[in-house]
């Protein structure tokens, strides 16, 4: 079947009736399918369970370097965990601090410190008249809610092929001193799956910013989350910043939440040696140190697995078919109908799906009434405000293949119904 | 031997020479003994190692209530962990939030939130002209450095028998709107070991404060850390505040850092249901939730141990002899000489030791030169400033009995030397 907009009103009405019948039959099934969050499925979580046997009561609680992990101390984590993350961040281990189980906490706390104590010797952000962040969109809802929470004004910039629209970004940061940061999910971006190009990385590193306390919040959450064996390469932002003479500009974040245990993994922050020293002295008021036993568990686990990469292939084997299932159902139901577009990421956790303008909220709501939960429409935009009401984030990792099959079929029916209603209106 | 101050100058000089010879002989031993921090010894840490076998790859990662601990979620912790801490705090489980591995983080973050977002609907503390905290002294150095870090002015109030001098506290909080908090270590206070009396608890709960955004920071770090089977009872501050019509006044903190693993335990905060709801909504921007696998480990462990109390008896059996060793050596060397006093706590981690006025810094420094590290003199006072330069905190838990024997002998010699030098000056 082809372009729906070419159909006569009569044909559209007939089609709508059929769709509504099918929709009603799905409603009768009392489905309860959740595709709202980027949540690993239980098979993925199970991959890391052997880790739980790697630090036991038989062990001496010591790292290979001889550090006691049972007692206090080690504010920045054990050396071996820093080495592990230094590979993800492509920096020196001394540029890494290991945190607790959540990289969101490291991002939140970085902003909180900037608010209270300032950045780069400048006035605390909370004492400056206005603080603004650039938010490439569509983007990650938790970044946006952090900004909202801290009273940071969000300026949207389009995420285009290869990263944010850099002409726009450069114009903004060069002219507005109140712009203090930009959120970036540079690899398999949430939700579009895009990977920042070398040119974008270079321009982010090199651009002149009016604010001397400007920071790039580089949330590399999916750094190693590829579907294929020939992953996309992301240019090293730390090195690019260093070479551009802006060595302190970037704060990188990552975690093993989608590598080991979503609630019990490790998080880390990386930056210039100078920034890291400063953060260490600041967090010494906040903690005696992170959970080193869990770090040792992780270090031993990846040793046993061979490498992080080997472990991530197991994840890819579980979730690749889920993404393919989504593409298969979308193709089957929506191909050529000119009522939706979607991107095919090569890694990460999401599929970015666009309806006709003004349809996303209705689609999400209709799907919900049939028991299929999607991320709220608008969530991928600051203040929950998608100006065209068309972006929907699909998170296919958590449901089973069978559930996904049904969930996407329901989604497609909802998209068709809402689109036809729009055309008929 | 009796009161040293009664000796003639000649006798003092002879005695000093002998002491200096002994001191030199200790120096020759190249000792390296650390009594600076309240750090559990390895035998204590080992008590909890069986916990590491209680969540393994064979397990379903589920709580008794059916919650999945392997995945995201549960911002306030698993129900069973809340029940565990509710017993320590003597509150309802719904009044508890489980944190990461460090109660210091919960205290730090509580202040950070007050700074940025305010308390009780009042202006954020960072936007008020001046913020002050009452600091009963001697007290815990990390509380004081937190205040210094956040720019909070510290007002010292004497810690007397049964708690802070409440006449003074009441006078202060009734008259000064900028006083927003008081630090309390109500049981086996750090470092004096005192337990707050019922009267002090009631007066803290009932007192009128000029600031409507006043909070008691109730760091109940040693709530269950008794030496005897007939522990001191601490009146329930949460209930007392509730009954006094100040239900939101108190924030309680505790952790298992000195119960299970100092670096890998659980921390928790307790307060009124209203405060807890507010904190939960605030931290939802900061984390998806704490490490629930570690919580499950802890819950299973205490089930197996019988109870928290049973487990703590094992700790007491290890550290009680260490405290007794310190008292024995102090008695032997210093009894009746009228150059030092010390308290005999019935729980906790410290012994508060007072020299003659103006001697503490010299004693700590002299001991250090003989390889015995004590907490820095002055650390038990805000800004590191002990007005009488006489308080020394002894932390006897980490060294072995043999090491303690030597360390306290060295301490006593240093005290005698510095005291005689003072008398001769």
Automatic annotation (TrEMBL), chains A, B:
This is Aminotransferase. InterPro entries: AspAT_Ic, PyrdxlP-dep_Trfase, PyrdxlP-dep_Trfase_major, PyrdxlP-dep_Trfase_small. It comes from Alkalihalobacillus trypoxylicola. Transmembrane segments: none annotated. GO terms for molecular function: L-aspartate:2-oxoglutarate aminotransferase activity. Pfam families: Asp_aminotransf. Keywords: Aminotransferase, Transferase. It comes from the Bacteria.
